[in-house]
Amino acid sequence: MQGFQLGERAALLNPDQIATQSYQMQDWQKGYRSLTEEYDYWIEDIEGTIPSELNGTLFRNGPGLLDINGQRVHHPFDGDGMISAIHFSNGRAHYRNRFVRTQAFLEEQQAGRILYRGVFGTQKPGGWLANAFDLRRKNIANTHIIYWGEKLLALWEAAEPHRLHPETLETIGLDYLEGVLQPGDAFAAHPRIDPASDLDEGEPCLVNFAIKPGLSTTITIYEFAPSGKLLRQHAHSVPGFAFMHDFAITPHYCIFFQAPIAFNPIPFLLGFKGAGQCLQAKLDQPTQIILIPRNGKDPVQTIPVDSGFVFHHANAFEQGDELVIDSIAYASLPAIDAGDDYREVRFEKLDPGQLWRTRLNLKTQTIERQLLESRCCEFPTLHPRHVGQPYRYVYLGAAHNPTGNAPLQGVIKLDLETGERQLWSAAPRGFSGEPVFVPRSSDPDAAEDDGWLLLLIFNAELERSELVILDAQDLSQPIAKLRLKHHVPYGLHGSFVPEVFAS
Ligand code: CO
Predict the structure, then answer these.
(1) DSSP H helical segments within 164-319, as ranges?
(2) What separation in Å is there between the alpha carbon of 257 and the centre of ligand 1?
(3) Which of 31, 126, 307, 313 is the 20 to 30 A CA-CA neighbour of 108?
(4) How many Å lie between the centroid of ligand 1 and the Cα of residue 309?
(5) How far apart are CA 245 and CA 155, in angstroms?
(6) Is the distance from CB of 354 to CB of 402 less than 8 angstroms?
(7) How far away, in angstroms, is 118 Cα from ligand 1 center?
(8) By percentage, how much of the chain surpasses pLDDT 70?
(9) What separation in Å is there between the alpha carbon of 381 and the centre of ligand 1?
């Protein structure tokens, strides 16, 4: 880890390359305010034209509340999950948002104060004595939202999914996936959809995992048919503590990056810190790549790599004897200290996320790494047809300037064949998150970039959010900007489905 860390940082700190800051902190901070209202309306304030072929629903999830009655959460990851749904049909768009009515959300809204500790440092009022040995987990359902097996599911990686009504976004309740999960089980927030599973005669399948961390860690793999029926489930134990937010799939493997992180639970137990603040990087040790065969039968392989910290993978594929894995890596683990205010983060003091390619030769067990994109980036996405397969284009939320660490302000398209890049930026007053790629058609011969990028931007000038529609082949000018009547706090992940679900 040290070798690449030093080289990369030296390059970043070349003073000639430090451009002027592309944003104002006060503007960025405004995107982190609670949205307490729940809306239903047709979007009328539109610049440009919504493509008439764009039909379906964009679902997004993220923290909607950054405080409860003025008591602030310590970190946005502790904010209650709120779903936005934008339905597109025949050139029009409708917006709706609803909070996931988790048990804890209802209790806290009723009480008007924080009743639960958050994993990322939110504490109940009253100091450590009020928090010590309170190990209840608040399932905040705030990380991702998927539609699979005719169920709309809000996901949070440490607990069960919540099912919502796809038209009204009304919370139906915890969902155990027809008995696959037991009460208290985890279900990760990063499922991958294999578009044509080798194990299922070319049918699509949804692959997800669950982590049970401890002195050794259990990783359970689940694969589901489009009907929601369980196809495969197998569990594996790996040595050591593991914090793994995401994984990648290929036709034959589930791929995990287990970073060298230790967990010291004492400050959590004693009420000083959230569990997520008790993680500590062990810089002298490598990351372990864990390969779990999807058939559940072949042995698990573990290969060390100096990769830095990875939260999200872009994609992975098999090529001859090699596995190719593209991931956003950080030279150091961004810490969430107990005393810090996340809104005062010094971006320039932190390492940026960058896109790296890891080539793992399965025969020789050797590894080669290559920096694909040095610009600060996160939230990679691609054409759904290419998940687990060789691909040419990756799209990422990106900072405005090519060097340094900064908030995401746009989207970058990277052509992995030619190295060509296109950037669309909302700087200086716009801030972005995860782009979602929507194919224009289901034609299997259509170009890989024939489609749109949907991107929710916080416009600090208007103090409102807007949904930007970009032509994925030409990012120079948005096709349309749909201005919402309000802001949407910076979110996490979402998905697009061709169903419109208009009520
Ligand atoms: Co994520």
Answers:
(1) 266-269
(2) 14
(3) 31
(4) 13
(5) 12
(6) no
(7) 17
(8) 95
(9) 11
Write out the DSSP string of 395-464.
Answer: EEEE-SSSSS-----EEEEEETTT--EEEEE-TTTEE----EEEES---TTS-TT-EEEEEEEEETTTTE
Residue with tokens 């919540």: 162
CA–centroid distance, residue 188 to ligand 1 (Å): 10
Distance 321 CA to ligand 1 centre (A): 29
Q: State whether residue 57 is helix, strand or coil.
A: strand
Domain-wise residue ranges, the chain: 10-497
Measure Cα distances from 120 to 75, 79, 138 in Å: 6, 10, 11
Identity of residue 38: E
Q: Which of 228, 227, 236, 182 is nearest to 209 (CA)?
A: 236
Give 365-408 pLDDT, tens digit per residue: 999 999 999 999 999 999 999 999 999 999 999 999 999 999 99
CA 312 to ligand 1 centroid distance, Å: 6
Q: Is the pLDDT of residue 267 over 50?
A: yes
For residue 143, the CA-to-ligand 1 centroid distance in Å is 7
220 CA from centroid of ligand 1 (Å): 18
Ligand 1 centre distance from Cα of residue 189 (Å)? 7
Ligand 1: centre distance to CA 48 (Å): 31
- Amino acid residing at 58: L
Q: What is the CA radius of gyration of the chain?
A: 22
Instruction: Check: CB of residue 396 under 8 Å from CB of residue 380.
Output: yes
Q: Which tokens go with 158?
A: 């440490």
CA 172 to ligand 1 centroid distance, Å: 24
